[in-house]
Structure formats: structure tokens, C-alpha cells
Amino acid sequence: MPRALAKVGDRVIAETDKWETVEGNIYFPSSAIKDRSILQDSDLSTFCPWKGHASYWSINVDGQTLENAAWYYKETYDAAKNIEGYVAFYKDKVEIVQE
């Protein structure tokens, strides 16, 4: 069965066999996050006209902080309900692998 991984260095921070792809980004269900303690709330918020307001997390792994490396939509507009509560990662900060 195919799966998607999010990695920082050699550490897998999220893994799932069910994900959504939107605008070229893989959205992981929140249950795919292996260790929520690595996520730090960020003050950053952005707006998408069809998805809604995104909130961000910085990722702290092995003494390294990746600022605003993950985002999620706590509540989405109707057109994006399939990713509500899902998490995506910036590909230039977190390695995304599909197997």
C-alpha cells in the first residue's frame, strides 16, 4: 500500500497511508504526526480565498528549529473540507516522500 512520509534529516515526523493532495502539497491527517511535542505554535496566519485561514507550526527536531514549516486549516471553507484538520509541510524545510 502506498504511503507518504515527512522527514527532517533521518527522522520521520509524519507517516500515513491516507492523505490528500491539494495544489501539489501532501496533507497528512493530524493522527499521522508521530510526536506532537516537536510542534510549536506560531503567530503566523495566512488566508486562502477558497480554503480559509491557515495556522502554522514551527518544528523543533534534534536541536534544530524550522520556523513555520507546517500549516493546517482548523476550519476550512466548504471547498476544502477534505483537508480540514490535516497538516502540510513546506518542501524546502521538510522532505516529503511517497513510497
Write up what this structure looks like:
- Residues 6-92 form the DUF427 domain.
- This protein has 99 residues and is an all-beta fold.
- The protein has a single domain (4-98), classed as Domain of unknown function (DUF427) (Metal Binding Protein, Guanine Nucleotide Exchange Factor, Chain A, Beta Complex).
- It is built from no helices and nine strands.
- It has a six-stranded antiparallel sheet with strand order 3-4-8-7-6-5, with no helix packed on it. Strands 2-1-9 form a three-stranded antiparallel sheet, with no helix packed on it.
- The radius of gyration is 13 Å and the shape is globular.
- The model has no long low-confidence stretch (mean pLDDT 97).
How do you describe this structure in short?
The protein is mainly beta and 99 residues long. 0% of the residues lie in helices and 57% in strands.
